[in-house]
TrEMBL record:
This is O-antigen ligase family protein. Residues 190-358 form the O-antigen ligase-related domain. The chain crosses the membrane at residues 20-46, 62-82, 94-111, 118-136, 156-175, 187-216, 222-240, 342-361, 381-400, 405-424. Keywords: Ligase, Membrane, Transmembrane, Transmembrane helix. It is found in: Membrane. InterPro entries: O-antigen_ligase-rel_domated, WaaL-like. It is a multi-pass membrane protein. Its main location: membrane. It holds the Pfam family Wzy_C. It comes from Undibacterium flavidum. GO terms for molecular function: ligase activity.
């Protein structure tokens, strides 16, 4: 950083330097991430070089999909009534992707690999904090609160970040021959924390999915690959069938498992897996849900409301008041999001809003495929895994609806995406 400031062009280099450290802030209290973003945007505004910045933004393949989503949100906001106290915040969430473009305008450079290393460093620190908490020695202060107590979306985000970091580590270990032992140890260190300490079903499943992407990255329909997929599907089906016949766990609430029954991380993860199968079974048979399994009720009721206006939706910010009215007396009545971005976009923006979201993520996958033939093809897998992670997590959480998730994902997206068009020209 001191060398950067001593350079006459330090103002132009400063945004990239700050951006390289932002992945490290994702593993602590959300205020640090927001503060880091604010500092980056301030440095970006004063760094000048606007001609190159605008050229990079205009050349991004994501520009028109993001513009389309914004235009759709404006049109829908003109059609429907605005709920009091909900509209402004809800409308702003549909514009979140615009924060990606200042990061992309920085361009490619050494900061990207540094950002990857800082992301890995953050994951190792996070794993260490989870281990310290499991030993009962982590201080109960605000900075480490997410590692001591369950904090909703922040705790879910930590699990997702560790899953993505572990998959990225595995990819980097496969590509680079230097420090392979240390890379392997770091990967195992983070993976154990993910499985035993985060207690996140979504994050654990996401890691398995991302590992599958690495294994079948060159899928060519060979017999052993098809056999492996078929065997895994049969094994999964058999396991789910057996689990559905097992006795129900005493409790499905993570807090009770930890505080009342003193279960280990592995026991909690196993119990939550059993609970998930039982919740789906019970809901399918008798429409019964528990506090831990209320997502099924959320999805069904939200879908019922979508079917009333599938084309133009119900308007921005209207999900919360309409859902609470529809779900009166039910266990999910007080939920603030449907925990599924696809249902939320479809409900509020209609089918065009859902298609706009899918177009953005589809464009990211297309860019990743194009990057494979470029000079930095190793970053293609980082982008592909991150995009698949967003697509998968959006099935169970508010990945874009909540800034805690959205800004973290945008910071990570900037790492493989920045400079992608320049790379193609150079290639």
């Amino acid at each position: 950083m001191l060398r950067t400031i001593a350079n006459p062009d330090w103002r132009q280099q400063l945004p990239a330097q700050i951006l390289s450290y932002l992945p490290l802030t994702l593993f602590f209290q959300v205020g640090l991430m927001y503060a880091g973003l604010a500092v980056f945007l301030l440095a970006w505004f004063v760094s000048g070089d606007w001609q190159n910045k605008l050229a990079r933004i205009k050349s991004s393949a994501l520009l028109w999909p993001v513009i389309s989503l914004s235009l759709i949100s404006v049109v829908i906001s003109l059609i429907h009534a605005h709920p009091v106290g909900e509209f402004a915040t809800a409308f702003s969430h549909y514009q979140t992707y615009w924060f990606l473009f200042p990061m992309l305008s920085v361009g490619s450079g050494a900061w990207q690999q540094k950002a990857v290393h800082n992301f890995f460093l953050g994951a190792v620190i996070a794993a260490s904090l989870f281990y310290l908490n499991s030993l009962g020695v982590l201080p109960d202060i605000k900075l480490f609160k997410s590692y001591v107590l369950y904090e909703g979306n922040k705790s879910i985000l930590l699990g997702l970040l560790l899953a993505i970091a572990a998959a990225w580590m595995l990819h980097e270990w496969r590509l680079h021959k230097n420090f392979r032992l240390w890379r392997a140890l770091s990967f195992v260190y983070v993976l154990i924390a993910l499985v035993l300490c985060t207690k996140s079903r979504t994050a654990s499943l996401l890691f398995v999915l991302l590992c599958g992407m690495l294994v079948f990255r060159n899928f060519s329909f060979r017999w052993w690959q098809l056999g492996a997929v078929a065997s895994l599907l049969l094994l999964a089906g058999f396991s789910i069938s057996r689990v559905a016949q097992m006795p129900a766990p005493t409790t499905c609430l993570t807090k009770e498992m930890h505080e009342v029954y003193k279960m280990s991380g592995a026991q909690i993860l196993l119990n939550r897996g059993i609970c998930t199968v039982h919740q789906v079974r019970d809901f399918g048979q008798a429409k019964q849900v528990t506090q831990d399994g209320m997502r099924l009720e959320l999805y069904v009721i939200t879908w019922q409301m979508i079917s009333q206006s599938p084309w133009i939706g119900h308007g921005i910010g209207n999900w919360l008041p309409m859902y609470q009215q529809k779900a009166q007396g039910q266990i999910s009545e007080k939920m603030t999001t449907p925990h599924n971005d696809y249902l939320l976009y479809w409900f509020e923006l209609g089918v065009t809003g859902l298609l706009a979201l899918l177009a953005i993520w589809g464009t990211q996958l297309r860019i990743a495929r194009q990057m494979v033939a470029g000079v930095h093809s190793e970053r293609a897998m980082l982008l592909a895994m991150l995009t698949v992670g967003m697509i998968f997590a959006a099935c169970f959480n508010a990945i874009l609806r909540d800034g805690v998730f959205a800004f973290a994902m945008l910071i990570l997206l900037a790492i493989p995406l920045a400079g992608v068009h320049t790379m193609h020209k150079d290639a």
